[in-house]
Amino acid sequence: MVRICLAAFMSLSILGSAFGQEGRFVFESNDDGYVRFDTKTGEISICRVVNDQAVCRMTADERRALEEQIELLQERIDELQTELAASESGDRGGFPSQEDLDRTMGFVENMFRRFNDLVDDLETDRTDPAPNAGESE
Question: What are the start-end ranges of the E strands in 4-113?
């Protein structure tokens, strides 16, 4: 089957260039119907005429590649749905909750106030005259 498709492709390429065909698809008849060659993607499909309409099916390689891509996309969808469910349930994926943020901010505010108090005490000590500095003995 692969040899037939390759032979059809080669003959289609020669015929297409000989007749100056400009279309995207090139068709070649065979015993079962037609072989359709996509000149943009290189895909080959087997086509038959059913009820006056061309019905084309993918080759096994194309179908396998498509199924692999679908599997990868489904895995990614599953990952995203898991992440979404975790975020909706309150599990923030390593991010702190609002309560954790409030507790941390309270700690930082207390530490800052204590630091300011310490600085104020040091400045007060520097500006106060030394005890007994003005007394003579």
Answer: 25-30, 33-38, 44-50, 53-58
Domain extent, residue 88, equals 59-95
> What six digits make up the tokens of 129?
């005259």
Do the beta carbons of residue 42 and residue 61 sit within 8 Å?
no
This prediction's pTM: 0.35
pLDDT tens per residue across span 81-93: 988 887 777 666 6
Tokens of 62: 């194309």
Q: Do 14 and 54 reside in the same domain of the chain?
A: yes
- Number of compact structural domains in the chain: 3
Q: Write b or e for each residue in 20-57: b if 16 or more Cβ atoms lie within 10 A of its Cβ, otherwise e.
A: eeeeebbbbeeeebbbbbeeeeebbbbbeeeeeeeebe
Measuring CA to CA, how many Å separate 70 from each of 61, 79, 81, 95? 14, 14, 16, 32
As given in the structure block, the two tokens for residue 38 are 């996509």
CA 124, distance to chain mean position in Å, is 60
Contact at 8 Å (CB) between 11 and 28? yes
State phi, psi for 28 to the nearest 5 degrees: -135, 130
Amino acid letter for position 118: L
